[in-house]
Every structure is written in structure tokens, then in C-alpha cells.
Specification:
By secondary structure, the chain is mostly helical. The protein has three domains: 183 residues, no CATH class; 244 residues, no CATH class; 72 residues. The chain has 31 helices and no strands. The longest helix has 47 residues. The N terminus is likely disordered.
Length: 689
């Protein structure tokens, strides 16, 4: 049998097919590595109905948040009930067995019964609050069923790790309640169950606790805002801006990936999602430049994950942190600046050294976006600027600030569509003003529906994870486990607080696997941050510490979802990509220890601005040394002994203290001088006699 080798089809139809194929590949990557993307497949009329329901839920969240005066129990149970409905409409029992336009009968039952439990609470909230612990057996059954169905939804859309933690704690809380009873019989079993269900379902110390309240009040609005912002074309603007700044330098495409992914990740709030979306552009560009696939995928994953720590938005986590730490948003954003600079500086240096080692060039300047065009499109960032200004000034609440920013995003999107029509972008030919206005109005309407749908879809996983975080916090509270754990770790650590930090770091990485950023922080703030506060660390440093290590779980093997998503696009070895991403993001593993022992890096307990400058400069040089050590190249290939010296010197400079800074600087300077002289000697022309 002979096989004829066909020439590539360059027809428009073929181009469309190729684009469709690429989109399908990206969807497959998202479904594999991002639980939020492993959704049911709806087409035709069912798709339209689901889209409308999602959009209406987004409108419901905005209206309820801004105008509802109902008691928290009513507002939050209505919110969770709606989440259950759209959650089961979105997520199948298994991502491997999905049929188009198919909703099995058991999912319909789970959806209606689960939502019914929460709606029952909402309709009878006043009665149930007055009953308090005197709830009747039917109320116990309703609460138990509601919790179990919510846990099943958690399994589908968030993952097993957080579900296991919540399940184990519920069992522990039940056993703990039995320990206070005189013997085990039907009555004591029922009393223990009633107490647990009452605490976790009918009070604001469980499912409808602080995490879901923050989610409902702030997070959902900011998720919707991010969806609107993405559809204004801001992602393309960020990529073009990054190209203009760094595309011309050595290994420019990788530096573009670092800058653009940091900016886009800040808005998107999803490490995996941002890795796939921006990575579809940046990773092939890096590979074409000459970077190895494992390195290209790692750069995108590390930068996209770092977007979650990038102020001022921080994937909406900044607003959540402000609520937990009882600080103004502006202060949280300012405190995040220096750690973020250190993180991205580390990645930038590693990328630059890799480019120098491989002899890679940048993109010719004439091929880069023009400043004139960037200036023309700078209006796209107006909603982002408006949000930061409103929240920072304190003139509006965070909820109202998000709502006004959404309106600004709609207006900016309309202007963008109008100008595109006038210029003939995305249409067959340039349009007249009247036709462009009509087209812009139509495109804005559908864009708003898509944004509300995307925002609502993104809210599902966050809301469910926040509900589980509430259950975890409730179990810890009702059992007194928090004080037990804190005392145990404090005793274990003794005077060696570093032990407490390491144990907390490991807990954060494990608990943060596969959990969305905002929900991740809710869990860390409830479980791990109090441990560090009890050990004597400042509140701000404790919360930033757990926030950082909860995030790096996305690039830390063996469950490095962002890195694995990057490897799928780069077509590289997943584990090697994960290891490379960890090396690139090494600053994220060191910087939290710096601000834990030197809160001045977070502008806390500052004795003078010289202290901040000294710590920052020392940490930057330390990051440079460690990056060079891990890369194995400076002016030329570095011998393993010198790499070790560089690493020691870099760590010395990152450890707070004048003595360690001086010793570290001496070691690093010695290696740099030796490297430079040695490189010059080797490059000197040989005289032939």
C-alpha cells in the first residue's frame, strides 16, 4: 500500500480548519488540566438556554449585591442554591463521559434536591434562626442532604483534595461530639448529627460562613469584571505592549511572555486558564526563537501563576485579603509590590541568561508593534484604572467600584467595536459611522451576554470551594481543632520558628493543589495563617506567606497543573516542564521567608526607608545569584563548584542581616569577577608566531 504525500492546503477553508483545529486542541488542554473547563457540551437551543441562565445569574449577583437588604442567611442561601443549579448544568459526573446536549436523570434529581435544600432555608430563614439548636429531624435531613450534594458538586468542579479535607474534618467533628456523650446509642448519634448539621448548614459558621459571604459580596463581581475586561481586547493590548518593550532584546519572546502573562494573569485570576490562553501565542513564539519546549512551557506557567500575586488586582485576591486582614485595599496592593517585583525579576533574569547561553536574538524592531498604535488603544485600560482609583480612594465600596468598572468595560468595549468597524478590523470592509454604530451595539450586547456567562461560569468553582472552606473552618471551630493544631505546631517548633514556617509551607502547597486562587486563599487564611500569627509573625506577613505558597502549588510537581498545561501546548515532557517552572519561580519559595522575618519588605514595622531599600537591593542581588546558579551560565558556563558558591552567596544576601549581606555580596562578586575575566581570556584572539 502506498501513501501519497499531500501538499499542505493553503486555501481559506483550510486556514479556517486549521484555526478550528487549534482552538479544539486548546479546549482539550483546558479540559484536561483545568477542572473549570471540563464542562458539559451544549449546542443549539440548549446552549442558548444555558447561556441565558448564566447571564441572568450574573445579573442576579450584581443586583443582589448592590441593592438587597435581606438578612445574610437569605442572601447567601439563595446564592448557593443558584450555584448548585448552574453547577450541575455545567459539570458532568465525569469529564471523560460527556455527551452533547445530555443531562442524565440523576443529575437533574441532584440539582433540584440540592438547590431545594438551600431555597427551603432561604424561604424559612426567620423561623430556622429562631429555632436555633431546636431544629427538627426534617431540618436535619434537609441540611445533611444539602451538604452532601454540595460536596458532590465540589468533587466535580474543584477536585478531590479539598473534598477529602472537608470530609475528614466532618467525621472528626462527629466523633468529637460523641466523645461528650454518655455512651453511644441512637439518641446520642442523632444529637451529635444534629449539632454538626446545625453548625455547618444553618449558621454563618459553616457553608454560609465568611468565605462564601466574601465570595458573594466581592469575588463574583470581580470575576464578572475580569470577564468583561478580557472581552474589551485588553489581553491583546498587553501582549502588544510587552512586545514593544522587550521583544527586541535577547530571547525577546520569552520576556514578552513574562510581561504579558503577568498583566493578563493579574486580571484573569486563573493560573491554568491564563497559561493556555496567552501560552497559545507566546509558547510557539518562544520555541520558534530557539528555546527548548520544556523551558518555553515553564516560562509561561511560572509567569501566568505569578499573575496571581501581581498588584493591583492579584486575580481578585487583593480584595479578599483586604477583607480578611481588615486593611484598606490600597494598603494590600502596595504591600504586594516588592515581593511581586522580586518574583518576576527572578524569572526575567533566568530567561535572559538562558537566551545568552543559547545565543538567541530578539525580534527585529521594525516587526514590533508601533508606539503610535499602542497609544491609540490605551483607552482599553480605562476600566482597570477606574477600578483601582475607586477602591483606593475609598469613595465607593468594593462592590459598587466593581459595578461601575463593569459599566466602564461595557462602554470601552462599545468604543472598541465601533473603531474596529470604522477601520475595517474584524469585518469585510471599513464601515460608515452609522453602520459601525449599529454593528458596535450588536457586538456589545452579545459580548455582554458572553461576559456575564463566563463570569458566572467562573464563579461556580470559586463559590463551591469557598463553601468547602466554610465547612473546614466550621469543623475546626466546633471541635477546637484550631487551637490543638496551633499548640502542637508551636510546641514542635519551639524557638525554631523556621520549623513552623516549613510545616505551614508544606500544608499550603498540599491544600492548594488544584484549588482556584481566591478559594485557595480562603482556606489558607482560615487554617494556616492563624498558626503563623500564634508563632509571633505579623498578621500581614502570615497572610502573604500562606497566599504565596497556596499559589505555587500550581507549578510544584507532582500536581503542577499550570506547568502541565504549558507542557501540553509546548508538546514537552510534563515533569521536566514542572521542574523548570519550579526553578524559574524559585523566588516564590524564598521571598515569603524574607518578609516573614523582615516585614519591612511588606512595608511593615519600618524603621526607615533605608531599611526597605537595603532589603530590596540585597534580595534582588540574591535573586540574580540564585537564578544564575540554577541556570549554570553567566558570562560563560559556570563550574558546579562556582554554582554552589553563587547559590550560597545568593541565599546569604536574601537572609536578613548585615553580616549575611556582606558575606553573600563578597561571594557573588568574586564569582562574577572571575567569570568575566575568564570569559575575556577565552575570547581573546590567539597570536600565531
Amino acid at each position: 500500500m502506498s501513501i501519497e504525500k499531500k501538499k499542505p492546503d493553503t486555501s481559506p477553508a483550510a486556514g479556517a480548519d486549521t484555526a478550528a483545529g487549534e482552538a479544539t486542541d486548546l479546549d482539550a488542554v483546558m479540559r484536561k488540566y483545568d477542572r473549570e473547563s471540563a464542562t458539559r457540551m451544549w449546542e443549539g437551543t440548549p446552549q442558548m438556554v444555558i447561556r441565558v441562565l448564566m447571564a441572568l445569574f450574573g445579573v442576579f449577583c450584581i443586583v443582589m449585591t448592590l441593592f438587597s437588604k435581606d438578612m445574610p442567611e437569605i442572601r447567601l442561601t439563595l446564592f448557593v442554591g443558584c450555584i448548585v443549579i448552574i453547577g450541575f448544568l455545567t459539570y458532568p459526573a465525569s469529564k471523560h463521559h460527556v455527551r452533547v446536549n445530555y443531562l442524565p436523570w440523576y443529575d437533574i434529581v441532584l440539582m433540584l434536591v440540592g438547590a431545594g435544600c438551600f431555597f427551603y432555608f432561604a424561604l424559612n430563614a426567620m423561623t430556622l434562626v429562631r429555632l436555633s439548636t431546636r431544629i427538627e429531624p426534617v431540618h436535619v435531613i434537609i441540611g445533611a442532604v444539602g451538604i452532601l450534594i454540595l460536596m458532590e458538586l465540589c468533587r466535580r468542579c474543584v477536585g478531590v483534595p479539598i473534598l477529602c479535607v472537608a470530609g475528614v474534618l466532618i467525621v472528626y467533628a462527629f466523633i468529637n461530639q460523641l466523645s461528650y456523650a454518655d455512651g453511644v446509642n441512637a439518641a446520642t448519634l442523632y444529637d451529635a448529627l444534629k449539632t454538626i448539621i446545625y453548625k455547618l448548614f444553618y449558621t454563618t459558621s459553616g457553608v454560609i460562613g465568611t468565605p462564601i459571604n466574601v465570595c458573594y459580596t466581592y469575588i463574583v463581581l470581580f470575576i464578572i469584571f475580569g470577564a468583561f475586561l478580557e472581552r474589551t481586547g485588553i489581553a491583546n493590548f498587553f501582549i502588544s505592549f510587552a512586545n514593544r518593550i522587550a521583544g527586541w532584546s535577547s530571547g525577546g519572546p520569552a520576556k514578552v511572555a513574562v510581561i504579558s502573562s503577568a498583566l493578563c494573569g493579574m486580571v484573569s485570576g486563573s493560573s491554568v486558564g491564563n497559561t493556555v490562553t496567552t501560552g497559545s501565542f507566546t509558547i510557539p513564539m518562544m520555541k520558534k526563537t530557539g528555546y527548548k519546549p520544556e523551558f518555553a512551557g515553564a516560562v509561561e506557567a511560572a509567569a501566568s501563576t505569578g499573575g496571581q500575586i501581581m498588584p493591583p488586582i492579584m486575580g481578585a485576591a487583593a480584595f479578599l485579603m483586604a477583607e480578611y486582614m481588615k486593611l484598606p485595599y490600597a494598603q494590600v496592593a502596595v504591600k504586594a509590590i516588592l515581593p511581586a517585583i522580586l518574583y518576576f525579576t527572578g524569572i526575567f533574569i533566568a530567561v535572559h541568561l538562558e537566551a545568552k547561553k543559547l545565543g538567541l536574538k530578539g525580534v527585529p524592531r521594525e516587526e514590533l508593534p508601533k508606539w503610535k498604535l499602542l497609544a491609540r488603544d490605551c483607552y482599553l485600560i480605562i476600566p482597570l484604572i477606574l477600578l483601582v482609583w475607586l477602591v483606593s480612594s475609598g469613595s465607593k465600596t468594593m462592590s459598587h467600584s466593581a459595578a461601575y468598572s463593569i459599566l466602564a468595560a461595557i462602554a470601552v468595549g462599545f468604543v472598541n467595536f465601533f473603531l474596529q468597524g470604522k477601520r475595517g478590523e474584524g469585518v469585510a470592509e471599513p464601515q460608515s459611522a452609522g453602520k459601525a454604530l449599529g454593528s458596535a451595539g450588536k457586538r456589545s450586547f452579545f459580548s455582554a451576554v458572553e461576559s456575564l456567562e463566563a463570569g458566572s461560569r467562573g464563579a461556580i468553582t470559586v463559590a463551591v470551594a469557598c463553601s468547602m472552606a466554610g465547612i473546614i473552618a466550621g469543623c475546626i471551630t466546633v471541635t477546637g481543632l484550631a487551637s490543638i493544631l496551633i499548640n502542637a505546631i508551636v510546641q514542635l517548633a519551639g524557638n525554631a520558628t523556621i520549623i513552623g514556617l516549613v510545616l505551614t509551607m508544606l500544608c499550603c502547597i498540599v491544600l492548594g493543589m488544584g484549588v482556584p486562587t481566591t478559594a485557595n486563599y480562603c482556606i489558607m487564611a482560615s487554617t494556616c495563617a492563624p498558626i503563623l500569627i500564634q508563632l509571633g509573625f505579623p498578621v500581614v506577613a502570615a497572610h502573604f506567606f500562606v497566599f504565596y505558597f497556596g499559589i505555587v502549588a500550581d507549578i510544584t510537581p507532582p500536581v503542577a497543573l499550570a506547568a502541565y498545561a504549558g507542557s501540553a501546548i509546548a508538546k514537552s515532557n510534563p515533569m521536566k516542564t514542572g521542574i523548570n517552572a519550579t526553578k524559574l519561580a524559585i523566588a516564590a519559595f524564598i521571598v515569603p521567608y524574607i518578609f516573614a522575618y523582615s516585614p519591612a519588605l511588606l512595608f511593615e514595622n519600618i524603621s526607615g526607608w533605608w531599611e526597605v531599600a537595603q532589603i530590596t537591593a540585597s534580595a534582588l542581588l540574591g535573586i540574580f545569584a540564585i537564578a544564575a546558579s540554577l541556570n549554570g551560565f553567566l558570562y560563560k558556563k559556570i563550574h558546579w563548584v562556582l554554582r554552589l558558591v553563587l547559590a550560597i552567596g545568593g541565599l546569604g544576601m536574601m537572609i536578613p542581616g548585615t553580616l549575611t549581606d556582606v558575606v553573600g555580596l563578597a561571594l557573588v562578586a568574586a564569582v562574577i569577577v572571575y567569570q568575566k575575566l575568564s570569559a575575556k581570556k577565552n575570547s581573546a584572539p590567539q597570536v600565531i608566531e
